[in-house]
UniProtKB/TrEMBL annotation:
Source organism of the structure: Candidatus Shikimatogenerans sp. Tduv
Database matches in InterPro entries: Ribosomal_uL4, Ribosomal_uL4-like, Ribosomal_uL4_dom_sf
UniProt-recorded name of the protein: Large ribosomal subunit protein uL4
GO biological process: translation
Gene Ontology, cellular component aspect: ribonucleoprotein complex; ribosome
Family according to the record: Belongs to the universal ribosomal protein uL4 family.
Lineage of source species: Bacteria, Pseudomonadati, Bacteroidota, Flavobacteriia, Flavobacteriales
Keywords, comma-separated and alphabetical: Ribonucleoprotein, Ribosomal protein
Pfam families registered for this protein in UniProt: Ribosomal_L4 (PF00573)
GO molecular function, one term: structural constituent of ribosome
Gene, per the UniProt record: rplD
């Protein structure tokens, strides 16, 4: 069993340790490598783009007769032989870099990264998040009291409220997302992962 610390935001104090069942997972960093490779590849898109002769704007009139000149035949000014003509086998923006990996690898990657975070006391549960009127000052006081403001914090919330996103936009070290948008890349990027409900953590941990 793992112990996860729970804090009260209103009174800025430690409440209790919540026990969560430990899931077995082989410590294999290649799991994260495969996931990050998939994540970054799926975000990538092709920008290089060239025009072939069908996309070039110009006349289709035949320049000269087909035979008798002793040179290569020329169909139109769009011919790749001429300056300003189409490009043969050039790069296009239709290329896709998507990679697929097994669901088991994704599940094991989640367990691996969450186990690592829980062991290092980097996963936290907060109480009364919505009862403090989403006050920035209260959150900053909480961070300064128990942690360092220079560290990176990822808040994972159950409900969506636009005011929260606007208020925390000026803080580079603080990011707020919904639990539906969680991924391993963010879990690894931010040092402390803060949940507003233990049920969200269990849902992610057991998915």
């Amino acid at each position: 069993m793992y112990n996860i610390k729970m804090y009260d935001l209103c009174n800025l104090k430690f409440l209790k340790n919540i026990k969560i069942k430990k899931l077995k997972c082989i410590k294999n960093k290649f799991l994260l490598y495969f996931y990050f490779k998939k994540y970054l590849s799926n975000k990538r898109f092709s920008t290089a783009n060239t025009k072939n002769r069908s996309l070039i704007r110009g006349s289709n009139k035949k320049i000269c007769k087909q035979k008798g000149l002793g040179v290569a035949r020329k169909g139109s000014i769009k011919n790749p032989l001429f300056k300003g003509g189409g490009v043969i086998f050039g790069p296009t923006n239709k290329k896709k870099y998507n990679i697929k990996i097994n669901k088991k690898i994704i599940k094991k990657s989640y367990i691996y990264i969450l186990n690592e975070k829980i062991i290092n006391d980097e996963i936290i549960i907060i109480n009364n998040f919505y009862f403090i009127n989403n006050s920035i000052k209260k959150i900053i006081k909480f961070i300064n009291k128990f942690f360092y403001l220079n560290d990176k914090f990822l808040f994972i919330l159950k409900e969506k409220k636009y005011n929260i996103y606007k208020k925390y936009k000026n803080y580079k070290n603080i990011k707020i997302i919904l639990y539906n948008n969680i991924n391993i890349f963010l879990l690894k990027k931010y040092k402390y992962i803060i949940f507003d409900s233990i049920y969200i953590l269990k849902k992610i941990y057991n998915k």
